[in-house]
Amino acid sequence: MDKTQRGRLAEEYFMQGYCCAQSVAMAFTDLTSLSLEQMKRVSHAFGGGFGRTRGMCGALAACGIILGLVQKESGDIQKDKTELYEKVQQISALFEEKFGSVSCKKLLEGVEDAGEGGAPGERDAHYYASRPCARYVRETAELFAEYLQKQHYFS
User: Fold this and answer.
1) Is residue 115 pLDDT above 70, yes or no?
2) Can you name the residues that pair with 56 across neighbouring β-strands?
3) Residue of 100, 19, 98, 101 lying closest to 65 (CA atoms)
4) Of 28, 59, 127, 132, which is most buried, counting CB atoms within 10 Å of its CB?
């Protein structure tokens, strides 16, 4: 699957009602040992900037989830953490360079009803038209696919 296909798949999941984190994570399930259902559950709390707190964008958080699942472990905890954290920092820097921030709150600045609270916005035509999230999800999946390919996780 190329980067454009992964991006489209992530956007399709988002348009079906899944959160940003689920949408991106689910588009990479095939690289992991998890089922689609498990990936959906593992990534669910990361939507809305981590449980709708508007912290780090869930689409970016999904990249960290996937990296944690595909990163080979050497058995040396310090070395493994260092390697994983370096990769997370790399993808975070690419994301911030592309979108201007890693913060859900900043990315949704000026979007009506993008505040805090537990209840997500009703997924209707207005919701999708009023926020850039579908684009962030698609472009993050594309960016991440390109990153993983350069890191030789797949060809």
Assistant:
1) no
2) 103
3) 19
4) 59
